[in-house]
UniProtKB/TrEMBL annotation:
This is NAD-dependent protein deacylase. Its cofactor is Zn(2+). InterPro entries: DHS-like_NAD/FAD-binding_dom, NAD-dep_sirtuin_deacylases, Sirtuin, Sirtuin_cat_small_dom_sf, Sirtuin_class_III, Ssirtuin_cat_dom. It comes from Mycena metata. Zn(2+) binds at C152, C157, C196, C199. In contrast to class I sirtuins, class III sirtuins have only weak deacetylase activity. Difference in substrate specificity is probably due to a larger hydrophobic pocket with 2 residues (Tyr-73 and Arg-76) that bind to malonylated and succinylated substrates and define the specificity. Gene3D superfamilies: SIR2/SIRT2 'Small Domain, TPP-binding domain. GO terms for molecular function: histone deacetylase activity, NAD-dependent; NAD+ binding; protein-malonyllysine demalonylase activity; protein-succinyllysine desuccinylase activity; zinc ion binding. The active site is at H144 (proton acceptor). NAD(+) binds at residues 29-48, 115-118, 234-236, 260-262, 278.
Length: 299
């Protein structure tokens, strides 16, 4: 990022900026879902003693060992299926509702650009919409796909379907326990791995892997170009192209507010920096803490 003057941690000052903004985007990463129990897989953790999780998220890894990759993604599917949105997801969902946004950013548009594949932002939207109309609902772009999408590997078919089955196939049942223990030695025959429901060819997780093009890039480029405020939520800003969006907003005169648990790459250039759990800092900074609480409250 570049172009920032004095960095602020003042929420009241940020809320003044929020009220005067016209086009707001939120660029979200794995830290957004951390409080929901979704592992980030980055850095040293104890879960992966034998395999680098990031190296499994490639077409080459799947071609070499589809059994290993499917065990990894089965674990992630099971984790996402059990997870619930946290307060940060809910705050962003509320900001997506015109009637709720009116009180904090009355003249602004808002869009969510998420790198997460866990579907928790969508689940948060659904919960919010139980109490509010979806008229004028802001767009949500899942640029790296969805963990519950299953894609056929046949070049003649390429069918993509949404599948939340648990387990997705009998052979993967229980393998999530081995993954959690850091052991992925079970060699499942390819014939027993998930298959396309249409042509029966081998299926793969329908997420965007390293080396593949993210989704909706043209739409995202237009939103970034128009944005005068970028909220960076729970991302270390290391994976491109999302890592460059905040800097692009600043380059055309917009402002950037970072919400992260700890310091991250480039945040010294942010206009606002709010460190701490984003499920606490984000609702407060957006002035939506009470509204977030009301979403989870039973009538």
């Amino acid at each position: 990022m570049s172009g920032a003057q004095t960095q602020s941690t003042n929420m009241a000052e940020f809320q003044q900026l929020l009220r005067s903004s016209k086009n707001i985007i939120a660029v979200c990463g794995a830290g957004l879902s951390a409080a929901s129990g979704i592992p980030t897989f980055r850095g040293a953790g104890g879960m992966w003693r034998k395999y680098d999780a990031m190296s499994l998220a490639t077409p080459e890894a799947f071609a070499q060992n589809p059994s290993l990759v499917w065990q990894f993604y089965h674990y992630r599917r099971e984790s996402a299926g059990k997870a619930e949105p946290n307060a940060a997801h809910t705050a962003l969902a509320l900001l997506s509702i015109p009637s709720q946004r009116k009180g904090v950013a009355p003249d602004a548009t808002f869009s969510i650009i998420t790198q997460n594949v866990d579907g928790l932002s969508v689940k948060a939207m659904d919960k919010v919409l139980e109490k509010h109309s979806n008229k004028g609902l802001s767009p949500l772009m899942e640029m790296h796909g969805r963990i519950f999408d299953v894609q056929c590997t046949s070049k003649w078919c390429k069918r993509v379907e949404y599948n939340t089955s648990s387990p997705i196939c009998p052979a993967l049942a229980g393998t999530e326990d081995a993954v959690a223990a850091g052991s992925l030695d079970l060699d499942i025959p390819v014939a027993d791995l998930p298959r396309c429901s249409k042509c029966k060819a081998l299926a793969r997780p329908g997420v965007v892997w390293f080396g593949e093009q993210p989704k909706e890039l043209d739409t995202i480029a237009k939103l970034v170009k128009a944005a005068d405020l970028c909220l960076v939520v729970g991302t270390s800003s290391t994976v491109y192209p999302a890592a460059q969006y905040a800097e692009m907003v600043q380059e055309h005169g917009g402002k950037v507010a970072v919400f992260n648990l700890e310091r991250s790459a480039g945040d010294t250039e942010a206009d606002f920096l709010f460190l701490g759990p984003c499920e606490k800092t984000l609702p407060e900074a957006l002035g939506l803490a009470f509204a977030v609480e009301s979403v989870g409250r039973k009538e």
